[in-house]
Every structure is written in structure tokens, then in C-alpha cells.
Amino acid sequence: MNRKEFLSDCGKMGMAGVALSLFPWLESCTEKAKQEVHGEKARIGIIGTGSRGVFHIKNLLQLQQAEVVALCDNYRPHLDDAAQYYPKAKLYEDYRQLLDDKNVQGVIIATPLYLHGRMTIDAMNAGKSVFCEKSMAFTLDEALEVYNRRKELGSVLFIGQQRLFDPKYVKAMSMIHEGVIGDVVGVRNYWYRNNDWRREVPSPELERHINWRLYREYSRGLMTELACHQLQNGSWAMGMLPEKVMGSGSLIHWNKVDKRDVYDCVTAIFTYPNGVNMTFESIISNKHFGMGEQILGSKGTIDLVTGMHYTDEPMPKGSGMHQLVEQIERGVMSNSVFAGTSWAAETGSTAPGMPIMPNVKVVTGESSVGAEADGSKELVDAFLHAVITGKQPEKVLEESYYATQFALLADKAMHENAILTLEDKYRVPYVPLGSR
Amino acid sequence: MKDIVIPAAVVRREIIIWLCCFVAANIVNWVVIIKFATPWYEIFSQIGYVTITSFVFYGLLLMLRAAWWLLSRVFKK
Ligand SMILES: NC(=O)c1ccc[n+]([C@@H]2O[C@H](COP(=O)([O-])OP(=O)(O)OC[C@H]3O[C@@H](n4cnc5c(N)ncnc54)[C@H](O)[C@@H]3O)[C@@H](O)[C@H]2O)c1
What we know:
Strand content of chain B: under 5%
Oligomer: heterodimer
CATH superfamily of the largest domain in chain A: Dihydrodipicolinate Reductase, domain 2
Radius of gyration of chain A: 24 Å
Strand content of chain A: 15-25%
Largest sheet of chain B: none
Bound molecules: nicotinamide-adenine-dinucleotide
Number of domains of chain A: 2
Helix content of chain B: over 70%
CATH architecture of the largest domain in chain A: 2-Layer Sandwich
Number of strands of chain A: 14
Largest sheet of chain A: 8 strands, mixed
Structural class of chain B: mainly alpha
Number of domains of chain B: 1
Mean pLDDT of chain B: 92
Order of helices and strands of chain B: HHH
Largest interface: A-B, 7 and 13 residues
Radius of gyration of chain B: 17 Å
Distance between the termini of chain B: 30 Å
Strand order of the largest sheet of chain A: 8-9-10-7-11-12-13-14
Number of helices of chain B: 3
Low-confidence stretches of chain B: none
Order of helices and strands of chain A: HHEHEHEHEHEHEHEHHEEEEEEHEHH
Mean pLDDT of chain A: 91
Structural class of chain A: alpha/beta
Shape of chain B: elongated
CATH class of the largest domain in chain A: Alpha Beta
Low-confidence stretches of chain A: none
């Protein structure tokens, strides 16, 4: 989806004008903002040219405002792969050298999690605008340090939480805020896969460099890799932050195959101040249910992944004549001799539901690289705009900050077997998305 | 083969019977509109169903009349 299509999708949502005050971070997608940077280029350096780095490169190739001038990776094969897309870009193996490159205005950081905080702070100190992949940092303290440093310097800082730029999420959230599904009474997130989450390793000493996701020394596993995307849903829908977190995690399957030490099975519950719970569950040894993100309301449900709206209220019944015929049919069919058992399983509703907007683009959660049309390209485009204008969009950073903090807090709760609250020192001013 | 001639009086009688069925079907429509609290515009929008219902009534009535005619013939003998 290009910018034009994105804008048109936003248009179909009726998001023009007024709605922008509710979604200020989308301002860079407007025609006016586009004119503001017309003909200008953001000179970008990419740090970490592994799978996500290359995914961004492919998007950047299609974006008018992008000029990739430098690439950095400390693993040569990945750096050389990336260089094929931008043969003129300068190549670095040490990110600090890239940061010294005065030609670079902004950096995209797509390295393993344990490097995010340090690299982001170094890049901001070097005067660069920064787009860092999620999660924002490796520890609660580090995330706060990044947040505070950005505030001191006034740098542009984006975190790779692309749902904020996905039209179906924006539309769904505006419906929820309008009260279409009544009061939000629950938020369900799950992400199931059936794969070992491993990347191929050319030689054994590279195991930890390539498969960093599987080791706690570099990663917080499913919570920072998957949950942090979904945890945003609850706060966005309800306009508040969770009060307490509990969780349980274990290694149940893939530890039989390798020596990983991050959990391959996790469940976490986040309780909001009004008592509503948000759940996150991930198992990577069964993929039957795939990825799901559902906002449950007192009047209906919105499935964010499929962009469908299901109502709990009785469906419109049809005309009086139809109802009469149905009643007669029911009378004929309800012969007590043939009646079934008095108990039936309370299975879910089979109501067909309605798409929340035309041409909903559904992405599966199967790929660990990223998916087309999931908002990633629009997010990077918004970053380019911010690099050129130097303007940090409102609200997005706080949303990403808290998504990271609650993912890390849940991980901590699992390891400490405790119910945890986010300490006051980690609380930064939060203006809920969707409020004016 | 002989032509079947339906006298005008019979045609008129059948039309009147069907019109009565049509009125009855309309009354049913009004009753269900009240009963199921559906909008009054269904008086017009459901006219197709009402017409079909009127034919159903007419058919049922035809069967009753045929049965009556058969029985009366049996008892006359
Ligand atoms: N937003 C999303 O949907 C999404 C999707 C996939 C990955 N990601 C994130 O992107 C990041 C990268 O993930 P990936 O799948 O590309 O991992 P990857 O292992 O494929 O790539 C990481 C790259 O960083 C390089 N690297 C490691 N240490 C370095 C250093 N000190 N200096 C320079 N380069 C270094 C590695 O050599 C590798 O090429 C992760 O934080 C991940 O969570 C986000």
C-alpha cells in the first residue's frame, strides 16, 4: 500500500479533518504534510541489516523521501546483502562510525533487543533522528533512560509499533471510542505459531549472534518480540494503563531440541484500574488459532486482526411476515418426541459479523520479519517526514514506551512469580490515544 | 378435443374469492406488524409476500371447497 492508498483508506474511514485531532501522529500522512517535504530527502543510515533491516530497506526503496546513505552491520554477509539494494551507501561494521558520519540525518536501528537502548541513546547524542525497532529497551530502567534522554535533547524518536499506522486499527479504535461496542469489558491477545523460531546458523560460534532471540542475555523472548505489539491494544482501546500484571511462562517443547533459555509458552494477565483484564498468550508449538487481537465490549466485539465487528445484540429480525413464517416453522419442528438433550455446550456465536471498512487487509502473524500492509511502511514514511521537519509526532512515543514497559514487567512477573505494578518512577506523562 | 368454457359468472366468483383472500392476507400482515412491532411501511414493502400468502389462502380454500363438493355429492346419493 502506498501513501496515496493509505490516505484513501483513511478517507474511507471518514478520518479527514476532525479525526486528525484524535490521531495526531497520522498528520504526516496528510496532503498538507506531504507538500511540506515535497522534493526533499531524508538521509538515512541503517544499523542492523538482518531480516527486519532488509524489510525496511525494501520499503525505503519505494518511498520518495528516502535516501539510504549508510549501512552498518557487524556480520559481513548481512551487510553485503543489504549493500546490493543501495550500492552507493557507505558501509560500516561499527555503528559508532556510522553515527560519526555527518551525512546521516536519521538512523533506523534493527539490531537485537539488548542493543536498542544503548544504540538509541548514542544516536540521539550524535544528533540523529532515530527509528528503533520494538521493543524500546532491554530493561525497565533502560527504557526510562531512553525516554528521558529524548526529552532532554528533543530528538525525533520512533519505535517500531506499526499498528498505530494500520488503517484497520485506527478505524477499529475510533469505533470503540465512539462506543460502538459499548463498554470495553475485556481484551484478548494471543499469538500461536508452530515453529522453533530458529534461524539457520552457518557455523556453531555464530549461534548466539544469529539466534539472539532464544537467549535471555539478548532478548526477553515472546514478551518483547510479540506481546509488545499487542499490549498496545488495551491501552489504546481503553485510554488507560494497566494497574497490575501477573503471568506464567515456561519452556515446554523447544528446549528438547536446543539450549534456549527464553520461554516458549507464556500467559500474562494485565488488570486495568477499572477491573478489566487484558490477556496475552503465546505458544510456539501449536499454531491452530494463529494470531488474534480482540476487544470485547458490552454490546459487541471487534476483531482487530481481521477487521470484523460482531454484535452481541440480537440481529435485526426481518419483516413481520418473515417472523411469522419462522414462528410457524419453529412450531412445526418442535416436536417433543424428537427433542434433543436438555444440555448443549455453550459454544461461541456463529454470527457472521461485518467488516469495519472496505478492503480490510488482513495479515497473519506467521512471519517473524514483518508483513505487507501492516502499517510498517507508513510508519517509516512518517519517520522520514519527521527527519526532514524535525517534528516529533504526538503521543506515539509514550504508547511505545508503555508497550515496552508492560512487556518487560510481565516478563519480570513470570520470572519472579509475582503480581507486579509499574513503579511510580517509571511512569511518564500519558495522554491516551483517542482523547483530545 | 372439446373447448373448456368457464362461464363469466364463475370467473367473477373466483376473482371475488381471491380478492377476499388478498384482503385476509393484508389483515394478517397488519396483525404481524403490530405483534412483532415492525415498521408500518411493511404494509407496502411486504406486498409481494402478501400476494403469495393470498394465493396460499386461495389454494387452501380451493381444497376445502373441493372436499365440500365431494362430500355433498356422496351424501346426495
Ligand atoms: N516491528 C516488527 O514487526 C518487527 C518484525 C521483525 C523484527 N523486529 C525487530 O527488529 C529487530 C531485528 O530483528 P531481525 O529479525 O532483523 O534480527 P536479525 O538477527 O535478522 O538482524 C539483526 C542484525 O543486527 C546485526 N547486529 C548485531 N549486533 C550488531 C552490532 N553490535 N552492530 C551492528 N549490527 C549488529 C546482526 O548481525 C543482524 O544482521 C529486533 O529488535 C526485532 O524485534 C520487528
